[in-house]
Amino acid sequence: MSAYVLPDTAEGVTTASTRRLKSVRLGPVSFRLNVRTLGLIGIAFAALVLFSSWALTLGSFPVPVSGVINSVLGRGSDEYDFIVRTLRLPRLLAALMVGAALGMSGAIFQGLVRNPLVSPDIIGINQGATAVAVFWIVTGQPVGMLAPVAFAGATVTALLVYVLSWRGGVAPSRLVLVGIGINAVAAAGTTYILVKYPIERVGSAVAWSAGSVYASTWDDVAILSIALLILTPLAAILMWHLRILQFGDDTAASLGLPVEPTRLLLVLVGCGCSAIAVSLAGPIGFVALMVPHIARMLGGAMTGSVLILTAILGALLLLASDVVGQHFLPVSMPVGVVTAVVGAPYFLFLLYRANARL
Known about the structure:
Layout: H1 15-19, E1 21-26, E2 29-34, H2 35-55, H3 65-72, H4 78-113, H5 125-138, H6 146-164, H7 172-196, H8 199-209, H9 218-245, H10 249-254, H11 259-281, H12 287-299, H13 304-327, H14 335-356
Antiparallel strand pairs: 1-2
């Protein structure tokens, strides 16, 4: 996990932050770690563990913390094991991993297009998955294939945005504009499908499109785990290349970086993070937008270690939103509704701040 810090086009590197970098050599491999960022990762992870333990105690059948710990470790009673390990733990782990995937996806796309107002749910990736998934549901196709179909929809949408943005290369501003257009087209297609088909088929599609980790299973947890074990190291390694791209294509090429192959790989990894989350939990908005901002405010310029911090904060935000929607509202709400309530004002605040700088 490299935390080698290059000057960021917007943030720079101060002398104090440079002093916090410690060189580490492991045989032929050497890298630098930011001690402050590692401390933040430790604090965030500890908060995540404590909050997760508390979240598992909540519900119509309260379970004490000791019962939660014993059940997680496989030493609980049959009654507690069923409540914790069968009903609550898969949902909690799914929320953590979906939040982590969305946070990393947002960090990649914001760095790639050098725009803090960009996220996969704004440039059409999530909406593309939604359109395909809604069509799959209302046409009565096998529910067991919904996750891979939604994943395929997100992937195809991302590749379509990339191809339509190509003009001898992909300019970040053009990618954003094309993505917004694709997002509008996919949203219109989703609306058309919902209007066209009978209401008895549409109901479940609308519920899915709200975004929820309800009824997550251990199979979902296994899929998310495998995906994140592959995508997280790739994303962390690519952060160094992403920092170079932020200097501009000409400078990156002069430094020996293959610009377009690197950009395509970043798009694929960012899309993979978003697609796996959307395919299993539906289109949960604004997490990918908010979390990278919070991580950069705490940890500084985006590096491999700050990306890990982003993943932990994304997991914490989504779990907190799910707990609020499930236990602290008059009516149980999908997690996507809660993140939208929090995220929409935050997006307007970012937009206002960006306009104030012009």
